[in-house]
Amino acid sequence: MVMNNRKKLPFLFLSALLPFFFSCSLRTLAVDSLADMLAGSGGTVFTGDEDPELVGEALPFALKLYESLLSASPENSELLLTAGTGFISYANVYVHTPADMLPREEYRKQREMRNRAKALYLRGRDYVLRGLEVRHPGFLEALGRKDFEKAFLKFSEEDVPYLYWAAAGWLSAVGFDVLDTELMITVPSAFSLAVEALSLDESWGQGSIHELFISVYGSVPEYLLFRPEVPEGGDTLADYLKGYYGLNLGSGELSVEEKGRFHFERALDLAQGEKSSPYLSYALAFARKRVDPETLLGLPEEYISLLEQALEVDPKASEANVLVNTVNQRKARWLLENLDIYFILEADDEW
Predict the structure, then answer these.
(1) Is residue 299's pLDDT more than 90?
(2) Which of 33, 105, 117, 143 could form a disulfide with 151 if both were Cys (CB 3.0 to 4.6 A apart)?
(3) 145: helix, strand or coil
(4) Residues 159, 125 contacting (CB under 8 angstroms)
(5) Separation CA 62–CA 40 (nearest Å)
């Protein structure tokens, strides 16, 4: 039986569209395959390099490539994590750190660089949060309501890299502008990501989560970390951490200093001598503050000792940490050479 023209139309229309559908599917498949390769095998190509300048020149191209791939495959959670990690790392190593090391007279340039670092931190955070939303639909809505119990209901150890990097980018941005009230009121949500990562796998990244806690406790007032105006026992973050510290230290009533020290010692244990970052994190977050509170005179011996210990770490002790060790040791040397920026030296101080 022969089709009449009216019945042929849908068939012909579908036939005309089939090449389009197949080309789109193949294109998406190709993009996802490339994205998965970049996301999964980037590995130590960057982190294992001992030449920070070479990596710094290559990263912007890589980041824009990731964004181009995401425009074609916006639901690729691994690529979202890779892109977010890249932006946050670039902000820290190549914008934030150099800004901190500028001379005092270049304060305008320093402010510009810090504003840029803040924007890059948040850009990276947003990519990682999108990755979490892809993995757990409804997560962002629950997080926005500070319903942390619901937000993290189905999370597992596989989510820890996302939690860590989103928290790191978010909380790093917070420190740039205390007058940014919109950002400051999100601190409990940002902190919740770090707490959830700690609860799922405290050893991840050879103690990286503990290093994040050192920096947070050393820079963010503790009352800002938890939800305001909730009855006692109503903040899951505070409840979990009280139990965590009680379990590990025999007490849930610890000062910020004691918590920072605990995380420092735990980070050292997990790093197994392969990372300089725990020494630098604790030196900047806590040891640097130990001067005479009235005169601000004198050099904190612990601060100097920590920086020296950071320099003693073999930067190539592990391939995954070569780049970060190299960058951290450069900063440690600079800090030792510029003690007068942070301290009022006495006449008999020799360094």
Answers:
(1) no
(2) 143
(3) coil
(4) no
(5) 14
H-run or E-run covering 268 = helix 256-271
| Two structure tokens written together for 220 | 């963010």
Rg of the chain, C-alpha, whole Å: 24
Structure tokens at 43: 């590995």
Residue in this structure with the two tokens 């955070």, named with its chain if needed:
125
Q: What is the pLDDT of residue 5?
A: 52
DSSP 215-237: HHHHHS-GGGGS-SS--TT--HH
Alpha-carbon distance of 282 to 218, in angstroms, equals 8
> How far is it, in rounded angstroms, from Cα 116 to Cα 129?
20
- Distance between CA 272 and CA 117 in Å, rounded? 30
Separation of alpha carbons 9 and 34, rounded Å: 38
pTM of structure: 0.86
| Number of Cβ atoms within 10 Å of the Cβ of 151 | 24
Per-residue pLDDT averaged across 9-38, rounded? Answer: 52
